[in-house]
Amino acid sequence: MNFTLSKVLKYTFFAVLLVLYTSSCKNSTSKKTIATHGLITQKAMVVSAREEASKIGAGIMQKGGNAFDAMIATEMALAVTYPYAGSLGGGGFMVYRSFDGQTGALDYREKAPLAATKDMFLDTVGNVVPEKSQVGALAVGVPGTIAGLFEVHKKFGSLSIEEILNPVVALAENGFVVTKKQKERLTKHKALMLKTNIDNILFTHNYKEKDTIKNIPLAKTLKRIIKNGPDEFYKGETAKKLVARIQSYGGIITLEDLARYKAVWRKPIRFDYKDLSIISMSPPSSGGVCLAQIMKMLEPYPLSEYGHNQLKTIQLITEAERRAYADRSYYLGDPDFVKIPIDTLISESYLTDRMSDFTFEKATPSSEINRGMIQGYESDETTHYSIVDQFGNAIAVTITLNGAYGSKLYVPEIGTFLNNEMDDFSAKPGVPNMFGLIGAEANAVAPEKRMLSSMTPTIIEKNNEFWMSVGTPGGSKIITSVMQTILNVSEFGMSMQEAVNEPRFHHQWLPDTIVFEPKSFDTVLLSKLQQKGYNVNEKKSIIIGKVDGILKLPNGSLEGGADRRGDDTAIGF
Ligand code: GLY
User: Fold this and answer.
1) Whole-structure pTM over 0.90, yes or no?
2) 144 CB-near residues (< 8 Å, 6+ apart)
3) Catalytic residue among 74, 364, 382, 456
4) Are 481 and 545 a contacting pair, CB within 8 Å?
5) What would the pLDDT profile of 75-115 be if each residue is shown by its tens digit?
6) Is the CB of 382 within 6 Å of ligand 1?
7) Residue 143 CA to ligand 1 centre (angstroms)
8) Which of 286, 424, 433, 481 to mutate to test the pocket of ligand 1 (most atoms within 8 A of CB)?
């Protein structure tokens, strides 16, 4: 059922929900008196960056498929309709909670090729050359998407790959309609796409809003994958085409790199925040660890009393973020390569100590915050979708090409862009990457290592039952956007849609600045923050995150939150 058709249902539930919310909300100075709700359905829902992808995923569940089948269809439909971040040439993370309460996480993050070296993005005098890790063939990490989706299918799939992917093949063949926002993005990135690829590519034509784009090479690639399985991408004709394109542009990925790629099941990070049990992505994403650190640092304080986006709330969240991102930069990397003291980093005693110098009187400058000392330790563009099915399975998936259209290197014969995930490594300790994030040895480049991520696909339980699935793109701002969305519902009594809609802010230790979504925050509030020593920047970021989520309401129905900042759409039944 699409958004328009569901409007009647939505408004029927509207009055009931208002009563339910009012009774379940905590006191909040900023609690809305008129609630705005997203799509509400009874059984199943997909919320993703494109209507077509949500529709295909929901259609798979309506046919009897489960959330995992829907994941495969949704993700490939995003590869067709949302090449900005969806692709066969990227990677991602999935966190799940199955109908019987089992939880887990899949890491299908890209990894460095065998020929990668620690200094590969430095010039002859040791300076970082950002273009090398951000644009073109050297920036590409070995893609994990197809391995990840087949791994999910092997463990949880209920329909055949053919049944799941046939609607996606049809979508690529029949085409999708260019939205206004999509047209703007294509126009903005056209010059760099042309500079990176010798010839015109499918996405450098002068599209207008409402034009239809058909991607026949991608349809053919998907048909080969349906027929031959993941080996088609990692060892077959597709692998050969991919490697030929990358190497002809000076890249170092080989057939051996592709053949060796494996998705890995990981134990997710689990922590409690008040009455919520939060399950999020473990390393090689920093998402779960940082989310746990920030929320545990906030937990002792009465946030709902301080009020949503009020002075004390912003100060407190900023100071917790500052400390968590300082730890991120030092301790976190690929757990198969570095020892990460996760238990300590998210322990109450460590985090209490971390906040011991915090005061509401004035900002703690980032120059005075270093990583926390742990004894014995040695050492824009991404997209998210959430799915809940009629059986009670819930998943949260964040996937990425890293930058917009990844490395901009396109493989015309396959019909997909390739990632520029190598920029998520720390090219040189202390030198910021494209998100301004600073890394250390733990995240240095090494052959076959996975680069540190900020992706934070998150599932939340309340009273031992599924409560929310949430996540977002946004590079370094992913973690703080997810955290604010959770707090908007749990502390400030908002609906899922309101929680996603609300303006956000972000601090990441360095640079020592709070970034605010422009024209969304009270100027008096901003000057009070400045008086307390906070650097305020309202101009740098037009949007902070593009959050999609699904919330289970007290009556058991599902509410979607599809971010107004994009073309994001909730569809379900
Ligand atoms: N490429 C963005 C991230 O993984 O955090």
Assistant:
1) yes
2) 90, 91, 92, 107, 108, 109, 110, 111, 261, 263
3) 382
4) yes
5) 999 999 999 999 999 999 999 999 999 999 999 999 999 99
6) yes
7) 13
8) 424
